[in-house]
Amino acid sequence: MDHDMDHGMAMAPKSSSSTNDTMMMGQMHDMMHMTFFWGKDALILFDNWPAGNSGKYVLALILVFAMSILIEFLSSTRFIKPGSNPIVAGLVQTLLHVLRVGLAYLVMLALMSFNGGVFLVAVLGHAVGFFFRSRAFKKPHQDENFDLPPLSC
Fold first, then answer.
1. pLDDT tens track for 101-130
2. CA angle, residues 20, 31, 153, in degrees to nearest 5
3. Is residue 145 part of a domain?
4. Residue pair 43/113 in contact by the 8 Å Cβ criterion
5. Nearest-CA neighbor of 39 among 23, 61, 12?
6. CB-based contacts of 40: which residues, under 8 Å, 6+ apart?
7. Residue 43: which H helix or E strand, with range?
8. Which pLDDT band, with edges at 50, 70 and 90, does 31 fall under?
9. In a domain, 146, yes or no
């Protein structure tokens, strides 16, 4: 009787999941870098873009640079005048916050390409944006109240 029960419980053959996992990792390795690299053969934000095209790569670097500057600009600019309607002021602050966070996430996703050029222009863009909001361009008694608090990491 025990023999009949064992017969119905035969073990399934081992799958070749380790082979499939190795193949998947190989394909993933071909698609994206996991360490910093240099060159125009990067995928930045969109599939097949810039895909080795020098002109599109330079455009991608310019866009990341501009987004980094804009993030710093949004962190330090007054768009709301004192005495504004509190509801309107709150909506403007919220929209500015959404724009700033969205741009920050886009820059972060561009950095996840692990391309050295993208990293350099992102850091340089934040530095240039910060420099223009630093003391170098402020009047001696300029009010430090901004519409948005600084991003915290």
1. 999 999 999 999 999 999 999 999 999 999
2. 110
3. no
4. yes
5. 61
6. 50, 52, 53, 54, 57, 117
7. strand 43-46
8. low
9. no
